[in-house]
C-alpha cells in the first residue's frame, strides 16, 4: 500500500534528462487545440482545408496542390496508390531510411529494391539506382535525410530516361530548400510528416504535394474511402450524404484538432528552423575537432534540420550511447538498414556497403525547437568527455 511520495522520487533525480526530441506545444498551440475542441467539429473540416492552404502558401506553390493526411506513412501510401503501384512492380528505395516508406510500397503489393546511399550525406546514390533499374521498375523513393535535400535532379534524369515516377519522402525536410526552391515546390510527388517528433507537428499528420492539380480529386478519394464528393462539403462544415464510391479508398484524412495545432505551429516554423540551424552549427563547431567522430559536411544553410547525427568511428558507438545515458542524455539511431529486417530480407538489392557501415556508426544527439545553451553544453561536454 505504502508508496513513496512523488516529491521524494523527484528529489532523488538530481539532473534533468535530455530527451532526443521535445516537441513545442506552447500556449498558442494549446489555445488553438482548445478552440478546435470547443468548436465540436472533430473530423475533416474547414481547418483541414486551411492547413493545406497554409502548407501551399509556405511552399510558395502556384500550380501544385497539397492534400493533407493523418501521417506521412499514409501520404506515402496514397502517393503509391496514385501512381498505380501494385504486384509485379518494383520501387527502388534506400535501405537506409525509416521503414514507413518501405511499408507504404509493400502494402500495395509492389516490391522494394534496396539501393545504397552516398557516403557523404547518406542519401540515395543515383549511380547505385541506375544499376538496379529493370523493366519492372516503376518508381524511385528518395529521402531527404536529416532535412538535407536529396539528389533529386540527378534522379530525375534516370526517371525521365526510363519513364519512372519519383516519390520524395520529405518527412525530415519541411522548411528545407534546394538552390532557393522549397522542398515540395519542385520535382515529382513529395510527402511531408507532421508527426509527434518532426520539425513542426500536428500530433500525427502528413501531406502529399502533387505536381498535377488533376490528381487532387484522386488523392482525396484515396484519402477518404473512395468517396467522390465529400471533401468540398466537409471543408464548409457540412456533410454530403448523397455520394458515390468510385474506387478502393482508405481513411487517412487530417482531422480538425490536428489541423488547428499545425496552423498554430506554422508561423513559428522560421524561428524553429533558425534555432535548429544554430544548434546544429554549435554542435558542429564543438564536435568537428574531436577524433573518432564525423559530422556532416553541411553548413545547414537552406536546411531545416530534423535530426543532428554524428558518425562514431572505431566501433565505439554503443560505448558512447552508454556514456551519454549515464549523464542523462538520450540518443537515437537513424537508421539501421531495412534489408536487415526479417520482413524485407528477401528483397532484391544492390551493394549496400555504405548503408551497412553507416548503420553501425550513426548516432542522433538531442535537437529540439527551443534549447538552452546549458543543454547544448551538457551534450557537448558529454561527447567531449568520452572522446578525451
Ligand atoms: C517520420 C518519418 C516517416 C513517417 O512519418 P509519420 O508521419 O510518422 O507516418 C517517414 N519517413 C521518414 C524518413 C520519417 O522520418
Automatic annotation (TrEMBL):
Keyword Transferase: yes
Keywords (A to Z) from UniProt: Aminotransferase, Pyridoxal phosphate, Transferase
Cofactor list: pyridoxal 5'-phosphate
Origin superkingdom: Bacteria
Signal peptide span: none
Keyword Transferase belongs to the record: yes
One GO molecular-function entry: transaminase activity
SUPFAM superfamilies, per the entry: PLP-dependent transferases
EC number: 2.6.1.-
InterPro entries reported for this sequence: DegT/StrS_aminotransferase, PyrdxlP-dep_Trfase, PyrdxlP-dep_Trfase_major, PyrdxlP-dep_Trfase_small
UniProt record similarity statement: Belongs to the DegT/DnrJ/EryC1 family.
UniProt protein name: DegT/DnrJ/EryC1/StrS family aminotransferase
Organism whose genome encodes this protein: Kineococcus endophyticus
Lineage of origin: Bacteria, Bacillati, Actinomycetota, Actinomycetes, Kineosporiales
